[in-house]
Design brief:
Elements lengths: L1 H21 L6 H10 E5 L6 H8 L3 H7 L13 E5 L8 H38 L33 E6 L7 H18 L5 E6 L4 H8 L9 E3 L8 H10 L3 E3 L12 E3 L12 H4 L4 E6 L6 H10 L6 E4 L18 E5 L4 H21 L6 E4 L15 H6 L2 E5 L8 H14 L5 H16 L7 H8 L9 E3 L7 E3 L3 E5 L5 E3 L1
Parallel strand pairs: 3-4, 3-5, 5-6, 6-7, 7-14, 8-9, 8-10, 10-11, 11-12
Antiparallel strand pairs: 1-2, 12-15, 13-14, 15-16
Length: 504
């Protein structure tokens, strides 16, 4: 044991010295001794975050940040050494830790939003010139030029004859960077097609979130030979593009929006429809199970509560409030004879982590005080998949509590193709891809690639393409044999207590 302790001490000392070298500090022997009197050293373990470390030591996040200059507390790495000020340990209440961390993350998010907005303005035009020219279009008279002619089906370019013309319609005048990210993701997919020996003529149009602008674009002479339209983004600007698609047999892809009224055989909606949202979760909620709903007051996700309540059917759930508990012990709500399904309504990362920690500690107490081990599954909202900028969910709790949730887009970073896409995106644009960038890649990988496939219908061609970056797509007719083609594939993400994460 003495030898083991010496090895650990040497490792901690070496890791701490590496950290000091990394942040550019030269330490004398006296300074190292003084630092040892003032600070403990914490070696980051698997599953820990800056927030969980601050909470565990009951130390103010600002103090942790001040004592570890050059360390990104949002993205701490396993094995990294953090200095913990001894006299500050245990002095900050959990609520104060959470509040201060939340303030830090808000400032960080505001700074990132401002940076991305500036990047969108400065780089969009540079990126555009790499591939295409923005065309405003003009109206020569009539809805569509007579010289175009009409066609009843989408051409097949797989025989090497001709080059498809692709129109991307994005509201580049809108604030934020998601549409620039979408375009960049599409460019990476087009680059992949070039490497496969396939060619396409691509034109980017600024739709300006205006149906009048889209009308001018689709009635222009330049637009006449378009074979595929990706966009527009918003439903209220889609009308002219959809009428063009219906008349010319051209697919119109809605890449981001969940449509409500745009019923047309020409439309292909990539965002999964709300009606199929809980299809894969439903078996967990039904049968002889004990349902417990955990809420966190004002932080509740009201939309999720409304949706999940509609799914519970005949079940009358028990209720538990975090952090107060309402005088009820959570362990008393568990059933030892039936599976327990715990639905967490918390809306923010902080409130979710607090709820999961409360459930976990109560569960530990329950199994310690009576024989047996009750079965437990925690169900969360689809918004959990978007928790990345700031406090991430504690993975050790997700696994321990058999947590699951559905999401409209899951980025599986264990997938080699995903990592390859992220590396290329970073190389090309100097930034990490957002979910919009992934969706842009998928739009091209699915629909442009389908133009080169064979099949009696465009839907059959899409099925031949396969899954682009790990998120599944299956298009069904909204309402049966009429209406738009809608993706019905929500991803069901499950963390199991044997430390496996699966997606379905």
């Amino acid at each position: 044991m003495i030898f083991g302790a010496l090895v650990l001490a040497d490792a901690r000392s070496a890791a701490a010295q590496d950290l000091r070298v990394e942040i550019g500090e030269e330490q004398s022997a006296g300074e190292i001794r003084r630092q040892a009197r003032l600070f403990d050293e914490h070696i980051v373990r698997m599953g820990e975050t800056g927030f969980s470390i601050a909470r565990g030591y009951a130390i103010a996040p600002k103090t942790l940040a001040d004592d570890n200059p050059g360390v990104d507390l949002v993205n701490v790495k396993v094995g990294q050494v953090l200095l913990i000020r001894k006299r500050e340990r245990g002095r900050t209440e959990p609520e104060r830790v959470a509040s201060q961390w939340d303030d830090m993350m808000t400032r960080r998010a505001d700074d990132e939003t401002a940076r991305r907005a500036a990047l969108a303005q400065s780089e969009t035009s540079r990126v555009d010139t790499l591939w295409s020219v923005v065309i405003d279009g003009h109206n020569p008279g009539g809805l569509f030029p007579d010289s175009v002619g009409r066609r009843s089906e989408v051409p097949n370019f797989g025989d090497g004859g001709g080059v498809p013309r692709i129109a991307l319609m994005l509201p580049l005048n809108q604030p934020g960077i998601q549409f620039t990210d979408f375009y960049r993701g599409a460019l990476v997919a087009f680059e992949d097609m070039k490497k496969q020996g396939r060619s396409a003529q691509v034109t980017l149009y600024n739709s300006e979130n205006s149906a009048e602008k889209v009308q001018r674009i689709v009635t222009s002479g330049e637009f006449a030979g378009t074979d595929l339209i990706i966009g527009p983004v918003y439903e209220d600007e889609m009308g002219p593009a959809v009428r063009f698609g219906e008349a010319m047999g051209v697919p119109v892809v809605s890449p981001l929006a969940t449509l409500r009224e745009m019923e047309s055989d020409a439309v292909w909606q990539m965002a999964p429809d709300a009606e199929s949202k809980y299809d894969k979760l439903r078996p967990t909620l039904h049968g002889d199970v004990n349902i417990v709903i955990v809420s966190s007051g004002a932080a509740n996700d009201a939309e999720f509560e409304r949706e999940i309540s509609a799914e519970l059917g005949r079940h009358t759930p028990k209720r538990f409030n975090v952090p107060a508990g309402g005088g009820v012990n959570f362990a008393a709500l568990l059933d030892w004879n039936r599976p327990n399904v715990v639905i967490v309504l918390a809306g923010s990362e902080l409130s979710v982590n607090l709820a999961l920690a409360t459930i976990s500690s109560s569960y530990n107490l329950a199994v310690a005080t009576r024989p047996g081990r009750p079965s437990i599954t925690v169900v969360g909202t689809s918004r959990w998949a978007n928790y990345s900028a700031g406090v991430s969910l504690d993975p050790s709790l997700l696994f321990k509590l058999n947590t699951s949730f559905v999401t409209n887009y899951h980025i599986d970073r264990a997938n080699p193709e995903t990592r390859f896409f992220e590396a290329r995106y970073l190389e090309l644009f100097g930034d990490t891809p957002s979910k919009s960038a992934f969706r842009g890649y998928d739009a091209v990988a699915l629909f442009v690639s389908a133009l080169f496939e064979s099949g009696e219908s465009f839907g059959e061609r899409i099925e031949r393409v396969g899954i682009p970056l790990g998120t599944g797509y299956r298009f069904v007719r909204d309402g049966g044999y009429v209406g738009r083609h809608v993706n019905d594939q929500w991803t069901f993400v499950t963390f199991s207590s044997d430390y496996n994460m699966t997606t379905e």
